[in-house]
Design brief:
Keywords: Kinase, Serine/threonine-protein kinase, Transferase. This is Histidine kinase-like protein. One of its GO terms (molecular function) is protein serine/threonine kinase activity. InterPro entries: Anti-sigma-factor_SerPK, HATPase_C_sf, HATPase_dom. It comes from Actinoplanes italicus. The protein is α+β, with helices and mostly antiparallel strands. It has a single domain, classed as Heat Shock Protein 90, CATH 3.30.565.10. It is built from three helices and five strands, in the order βααββαββ. The chain has a five-stranded antiparallel β-sheet, covered by helices on one side. A hairpin with a 2-residue loop joins β4 and β5. The protein is globular and about 35 Å long. The relative contact order is 0.20.
């Protein structure tokens, strides 16, 4: 699913929720995936140009979600910002919600790959 502007965010969230439910994720996992995708897409829309794409699939008991854009590589392993910080929580939240988070430089652009074991 492609996205290009802030008005696309509700449609991306609905897509992520539908796919996660269809792939057998638990209700908590669905919510975690939707929040993580929302954070990553929001970062794309705020900090890059050209929008991006989201793809979600399952294999071997795992759900994988790629959020792809043309922004710089993401630094993972972030500490949660202090409560008085105005920004900087997005990737830290994503890393706490997902079973696996990887940043990959690919031919398509920068990929943030999220992983969940189905039903765990």
């Amino acid at each position: 699913m492609a996205y290009h502007q802030p008005d696309d965010l509700p449609r991306v969230r609905a897509f992520a929720q539908r796919r996660a439910e269809d792939l057998g994720m638990t209700a908590d996992q669905v919510m975690s995936l939707v929040i993580a995708v929302s954070e990553l897409v929001t970062n794309t829309l705020q900090h890059t140009s050209g929008g991006g794409r989201v793809r979600i699939w399952a294999e071997n008991g795992q759900v994988t979600c790629d959020v792809i854009d043309h922004g710089p590589m993401r630094a993972l392993g972030r500490r949660m910002p202090t409560p008085d910080a105005e920004r900087g929580r997005g990737l830290a939240i994503v890393e706490r919600l997902c079973g696996r988070v990887d940043a990959i430089a690919g031919d398509e652009g920068t990929i943030v790959r999220l992983g969940f074991a189905i039903g765990r």
